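Example 9 (inverse folding). The structure is encoded as follows.
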């Protein structure tokens, strides 16, 4: 069986790129939530519904029906 050695530098580079991708995605979602919450043209209920739309879109794109809470 053949094995391929990957240098620590390569693994670190891949991990950094993955972390940057996650950070970018989270920033995008949070920006959408912030925009929904600060939209002066919406009522309070409208803002809540706009945030719900962001959440529903996230769930649809990820194929998740429920989010697991790790908060204690």
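The amino acid assigned to each position is listed next.
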């Amino acid at each position: 069986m053949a094995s391929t050695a990957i240098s620590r530098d390569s693994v670190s580079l891949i991990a950094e790129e993955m972390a940057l991708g996650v950070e970018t995605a989270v920033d995008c979602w949070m920006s959408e939530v912030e925009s929904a919450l600060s939209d002066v043209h919406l009522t309070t209920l409208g803002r809540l519904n706009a945030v719900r739309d962001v959440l529903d879109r996230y769930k649809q794109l990820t194929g998740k029906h429920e989010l697991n809470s790790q908060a204690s």
